[in-house]
Every structure is written in C-alpha cells, then in structure tokens.
Automatic annotation (TrEMBL):
GO terms for cellular component: plasma membrane. This is Ferrous iron transport protein B. Keywords: Membrane, Transmembrane, Transmembrane helix. One of its GO terms (molecular function) is ferrous iron transmembrane transporter activity. The lineage of its organism: Bacteria, Pseudomonadati, Pseudomonadota, Gammaproteobacteria, Alteromonadales. Residues 1-167 form the FeoB-type G domain. The chain crosses the membrane at residues 211-236, 242-263, 270-295, 322-342, 354-375, 387-410, 451-472, 503-525, 546-568, 580-603.
Amino acid sequence: MQRIILVGKPNSGKSLLFNQLTGLRQKVANFPGVTVELKSGQFDEFELIDFPGTYSLNSLSRDEQIAIEKLNIAVHDEHTSMVVCVLDATRLERSLVFGLQAQRLAEENGKSVVFVLNMIDEVQKHGFEIDVDGLQQALGAPVFALSAKKLIGVAEFKKALPALVKQGKTSHHDIPEAREKVIERARNISKQYGIQADVVLKSQNRIDRFLLHNVLGGVAFLAVMFLLFQSIFTWATPLMDGVEWCITEFAHWLTALIGPGMISDFLNDAVFGGVGAFLVFVPQIMVLTFIIGLLEDSGYLARAALICHKPLSYFGLSGRSFIPYLSGFACAIPGIMAARTIESPRKRLITMMTIPLMSCSARLPVYALLVAVLIPEDATLFGIFDFRGAAFFGLYLFGIIVALIVSLLLNRFTRNQSDEMDMPFILELPSYRVPHWKPLFHRVLNSGKYFIRRAAPVIFIISLCLWVLGYFPQGAGLQGSFLGQIGHIIEPIFEPMGLDWRYGVAIIMSFLAREVFVGALGTLFGMAGADDNIAGLAANIQADGLTLGAGLGLLLFYVVALQCVATVATLRAETGKGSIAWGLMAAYGVLAYIIAVVTFQLVS
Ligand SMILES: Nc1nc2c(ncn2[C@@H]2O[C@H](COP(=O)(O)OP(=O)(O)OP(=O)(O)O)[C@@H](O)[C@H]2O)c(=O)[nH]1
Ligand SMILES: [Mg+2]
C-alpha cells in the first residue's frame, strides 16, 4: 500500500487533519507536543501516518527525536509516496523552518511534497487573505489553504490528493542545508506571503498580560485548579444521583419480579451492589474529562506550564512536567507517554516516576465514596464552597505534595555534574481558541464508555467470586463464610489502619484495578444485609461506623498506592527498566500503608 506521511510544526493541526481524512479520533489539543507516537490510518487507498510535531530536524526532546528518526526511515522507504507538510497559516515563519527542511529531505529522496496551509479560518477571521498562488510559486510545490477545524477546503484537498500521490511528480529545489539559511528563507517567504504576526498576537497578549502576570497569574492558576477539582464534585452530583436512582429503581423492580431466593440475593449483592455501586461514579469521570478537555483546548495549559516552570524546577522538574502531570489526573498511562516531550532525560525519568501520584480517574470512585461517608452533604466552606469539593481538592493536593517531595529526593540522589547545565525552558504559547465542541463531547462520552468497558468486567468477576465465597456455606452468615475465614487471616495486616477484614479484602482486590474497591465493598456490605439501600453504599458504610481516622487513612492510602498493573507495564516500557516499575509499586505501597497507619493513630 502506498503511504502518505503527515508532518509539520507542533500544534499546526496535523492530527485534526488526520482525523478528518481517516475518520479516526486521534487526540487533538491546543498545546505543542500532543502526538508523541506515530499513528496510522487509512485514507482512500493509501496508508496515512500522523507524525509527532517537530520544530526542526535538529531537535532535542525525545518525542521530536523519535519523529525525526522515523521521518528519515520513512523518506527512504519505497512505500512512502508523499510527504504532506502542514503549515500553521497564523505562524507561517515558524512552520516553514521545519517545512523547508522536510521538503529538502523528501525531495533528496525522490518523494513528492504537498503543503497544507492550515488554520485559514483564523487568518480570515482577522480579515486577511493569503496569496496562495504566490506561496505555491515560492515553495515550488502545491499548496492547499484549508481549515481542518471549520472544514474549509478539506473536501477539495481530499479530492485532489489521490491524483497527486499517483502522479508521483517529484521536483528538486535548491533549499539550503544550513539552519541559519533555512531560517532566513522562511522569514523572507513569510514576510512576503504571511500575515503579520502581531495581528494575531495582539489579542493573545492582552489575555497573557493577566494570565502570565507574576502575581495575578499565580492566583489565577490556583483559582483554575481549585475550580477544576471543586467542579468534579459539584457538577457531577446531580448526574450521579440520577444514575443511583435509576439503578436502585431497576434493582427493586427486578428483584420484586424474581421473588426472594438465591438468584435475587446474587443480583442484589453482586450485580447491583458491586457493579452498580461503581457505575454511580461514571458521570464524575466524564466531568473530569470535560474539564481537562476544556483546559487543553483553550490554550491555557501551555501558560500553566510556564507559570509552573520556576516552582517545579526547585523540585528537579521542568515546566514541561506540568502537562504530563495534568494528563495523569485522567490516567497515568497517557501522562507517562506525554513525558516524552521533556528534553532532559533525568527530569523525564523523575516526572515519569512521580506521575502515578497524580490522582487518576480510577481513584475518583474511591474518593467520592469515602468523602461522602466522612463529610456531611450540606457542609460548606465559607458558605460558598461545597466542603466535599474542598476535600477533593485536598486529596489531589496531597498527591501533588507527595509527588514533589519524592521528586526532590530523587533529584538529590540522582544528580550528577554533567546535567547541572540546564537547558533554557522554551515553550511555544499557542493561540487562545474556543474549544472544538464535537470532538470534546465525543471524548467525554468515550471516557465513560472506556471506563465501564475496562472496569465493569473485572468488578463483575470479582464481585461474583466474593459473593460465592461469602454466600457459602449457606446460613453461616458473612462472618462464618469461606470469605470470612480467609478475611480473618489477613485482618491483622489491616488492623493498624483501623479497618476490619472486609476493607482488607477490598484493598487487596483493588491491586487489580482501583475501582474494584468500590465494587468489592458494595458486594460485601450488600451481603451483610444492608440491601434495602442497594446503590447507596456510602450510607451503608456510615451506618456500619467507619471512624474518621480510619477513613482518612484509607483515603490517603489510595492517593499514594500504585495499584495499577497497566501503569507498571507502561513505566517499564518507557523507562526500559522493570526494576524501576516494580520497585515503585512496592515503594508506593509501603509508603501508603505507613501514611494510613500514622493517620489512623493520630486522628483516632
Ligand atoms: N481555528 C483552527 N484551529 C485548528 C485548525 N486545525 C487544528 N486546529 C486546532 O489546533 C490545535 C492543534 O491541533 P492538533 O491537530 O492537535 O495539532 P498537531 O499538529 O497534531 O499537534 P502535535 O501533535 O502537538 O504536533 C487544536 O486545538 C485544534 O483544534 C484549524 O484549521 N482552525
Ligand atoms: Mg498531533
């Protein structure tokens, strides 16, 4: 199959164009360095490959190096027929530095080149027009002006591309090799055909004067972060109540239909109690995805990274660590992958090792459940903020603080002379944009679907096993059941945390996946006879008398413990060392246990 490769400056809209051409849904966001791996899809009869963005052929960061290596391989490959180079029309000069280098590389190897002048809608919005024919002449290759977002010119491009690929017309232009010369030519071309950069920058600067201000910028940053975590709780509550109501009503209806007996016990305890208790929290994960998506699409993230650079560098991290950290709030795995954009190998390693301390969405159900148990519903902070929301913020903050302390220690232990010379922190600030709503809503829906698909089967199987072990021998009650007997053996481990064996079983099971904690507890409490309040697990736990110290200790345990096999596998792949990955799992496990025990002893 003939291959088309899609290259260009970071944040120029390659992935969005890739999605429009292939119908796939690769991640698109408004900051440089979103795509860190090659992604492949099909367009027409061709294979289309989306590359990570690169500023030039001599780059330092890991993701760009990978892209450059792969680009070199691709242009030598006989299957590659065309290089499509995406230019950001609002930042023509910067796009052309890599664009011209890529054109030279492609033409040297006999591949044809086409330029896409993307973001043309933003140029038009400012009342400008670009002389596409002139630009075409200057570059000596076809140029398609389009907007991958507003779909201007995309249909024409789709129509013309196959013929151009088949034609395979290659030409040779005299493009200089030296970087300075390339920069000079890029500047000349953009001066002649591009729009004046300050037109676009003006409105951006006005906002940045506030958001990047020494003091106000910091305050705005903290406010944004606080609102983020507050809203996870407050926005999601009505949705969660809705889901809970539906599950409870359905459970009552179905069990009434079936009548009492073993099947009805099973449905109540394992299915509605276990899987149902977990489903209640899915809206929260969707709200979190929505808010992170808003931040990513608006262009604020790059500013936040800039604000955080100085404070983060005290801990041996870089401003570039911020975006991987924030991705870690959704899930550690893409967060660890995103760390590839960090230039310094040591900072990259420290960032990867501490990302698992960012509270990922799998912890949300556990937090929400225990916070609901420990804090009364109508408690407010200063009469405005929901106390439960503030507690959420506190938990996330605790994870961040532990991550910073661990980074500081790792930085002390691994520092050596050679990397004392820090590279300057350079990050391109993207334009502020209105979020692209449709993909954002798709992403939100997908996050819910993905979460259910990933966790529900595991929770179902575990609930089933727990239920069988807890139901038999029949009539012995939960305490006398097989599960109870096993539970009593492990109980001494959890006693110092102030927890009985039922929590112990749920904690051990949650090393498979954190969400299992909620499902397992749901099943266990369901079997203990509290089944008139099926999905209302929080109320059941409250009635059972979980103490504040033990509950708080348990929460902090979940903040710190690394209970995710997939994360360990990713850490192993990205660091190249299994010992680091498994070592971290053990170390965070022990630390979490100690924190929980100390909290229980202090608070009780
Ligand atoms: N206004 C406008 N925005 C666009 C257009 N194309 C892409 N964008 C936005 O530009 C941002 C970057 O898009 P991506 O497709 O992620 O860019 P990329 O080139 O793949 O970036 P990297 O993966 O970081 O190299 C996103 O916020 C897109 O919504 C366009 O034609 N017009
Ligand atoms: Mg991309």
